[in-house]
Amino acid sequence: MRVELVWSPAAGDVRHRWLEVEPGATVGSALRGCGEFGPAIEPLRVGIWGRVRPLDTPLRERDRIEVYRPLTVDPKEARRLRYARRGERIVSRHRPGRPG
Fold it and tell me: Max CA-CA distance within the chain?
């Protein structure tokens, strides 16, 4: 069975690899077998197709395993920094307006 593994060790560096796994393999067994993350995979945050999943999740043919890095900056703080650089209010186009 073939699955895809995607991870980013650093900002701007995205790595991709196809893995051959046995039918019935789990996310954890696939990560242990690939050798990219060492023996301690428990602290990793992983997902399949953008949804966070536990390491004991069974894999299906052509699943995309994604390994997530921890956030380096709080998203609210990053927004404040962008606002400070731009000097103007950041408005989301997706926020509904207030009823009159």
Answer: 59
pLDDT by residue for the chain (100 residues), tens digit each? 999 999 888 878 899 999 999 999 999 999 888 887 766 777 888 999 999 999 999 999 999 999 998 877 788 888 888 888 877 665 666 655 555 5
Q: pTM here?
A: 0.69
CA atoms of 22 and 33, how far apart (whole Å): 11
- Residue ranges of domains in the chain, CATH in brackets: 2-70 (3.10.20.30)
